[in-house]
Amino acid sequence: MKKVYEWMQRNPMFPHPTSYNPFLRVKSKREKDLENESPNDHPKVELEELSELVKSIKHVGERAVTVFQLKTGVRSSELANIRMEDIHITNPDVLSHYESMGTHDQLDDAANAVYIPPEESRDGNKRERPTVIPLDDETRRVLIDWLLIRPDNDAPWLFLTQKGKQMKKSSLGHVWRKHWWPEYEFDTEDEFRSITPHWSRHWMSTWFRAKAGMEEPKVQYLRGDTMGGELDNSRSAFHRYVHMYYDDVESEYREGVFKLGI
């Protein structure tokens, strides 16, 4: 819309000066009239149905990203940003092939886990706080399957396209549409919104809070949400901050995480 108004202002028939742009004016004032209505609820999908769908995904990489997002609740932008140094899997074949795996200092005391940096540390990440998330046996299994066939190049990213490039947020969205639509695609007669990668974040959060009975602060930690309090920006304090909370959630996460039967 901004570009449309700029184009219109270049036409001499409009009386306003070229600096006048109603779109930017409204945006700066955060007019309530332009805010979207409350979005529809996410569709309710039972674990059995979820398990069957995941089992139907035959593509190794697509199954890996789907399970990873379901189990960890990371955003697509965060998943695309994961580097080999940010993830650790206790598997001799994988560790011997990927020498940089798990070398980030936030994983020093965290085996079989992934580190997700906050927004301030990695461009594109949206979480407010750094997070170390456990990887359960099913997530590790699909990741090992992927890593054994991953394009063998010097790219640092965990997930790559078939051409060996960093997987983008749009590509991850395509994976979810491919396997969930049209059955779970929104239409005007449907009361629920479409299933997208963002839905997995809600599903994971609901499972741990409502089904596994995890306390809200621990769910907030897994999601990377702000929990209040100031964070010392020194590297040593930053390191202790992350691991203190990881220790709080690790055993409960591993005991309570849902099983897909894969």
Walk me through the structure.
The protein has 262 residues and is mainly α. It has 2 domains: 2-34, no CATH class; 47-256, hpI Integrase, Chain A (Orthogonal Bundle), CATH 1.10.443.10. Helices cover 45% and strands 4% of the residues. The protein has helices spanning 2-9, 22-29, 47-56, 60-72, 76-80, 92-97, 137-147, 169-180, 197-211, 216-223, 235-256, and strands spanning 87-88, 113-116, 131-134. It has a 3-stranded antiparallel beta sheet with strand order 1-2-3. The termini are far apart.
Topology:
Elements: H1 2-9, H2 22-29, H3 47-56, H4 60-72, H5 76-80, E1 87-88, H6 92-97, E2 113-116, E3 131-134, H7 137-147, H8 169-180, H9 197-211, H10 216-223, H11 235-256
Antiparallel strand pairs: 1-2, 2-3
Helix pairs in contact: 4-7, 4-9, 9-10
Feature tags:
single chain, 262 residues, mainly alpha, hpI Integrase, Chain A, three-stranded antiparallel β-sheet
Q: How would you summarize this macromolecular structure in one to three sentences?
A:
The chain contains 11 helices and 3 strands; from the N terminus they run αααααβαββααααα. It is mostly helical.
Q: What is the second-level CATH architecture of the largest domain?
A: Orthogonal Bundle
Strand order of the largest sheet: 1-2-3
What is the CATH first-level class name of the largest domain?
A: Mainly Alpha
Please give the number of β-strands: 3
* Order of secondary-structure elements: HHHHHEHEEHHHHH
- Structural class category: mainly alpha
Number of helices: 11
The CATH topology of the largest domain corresponds to hpI Integrase, Chain A
How much strand content do the residues show? under 5%
The largest β sheet comes out as: 3 strands, antiparallel
Gyration radius, in Å: 21 Å
Sum up the overall morphology in one term. globular
What is the first-to-last residue Cα distance?
47 Å
Query: Portion of residues in helices?
Result: 40-55%
Uncertain segments = 228-243
Mean pLDDT, to the nearest integer, reads 85
Number of domains: 2
Q: Can you say what the CATH homologous superfamily of the largest domain is?
A: Intergrase catalytic core
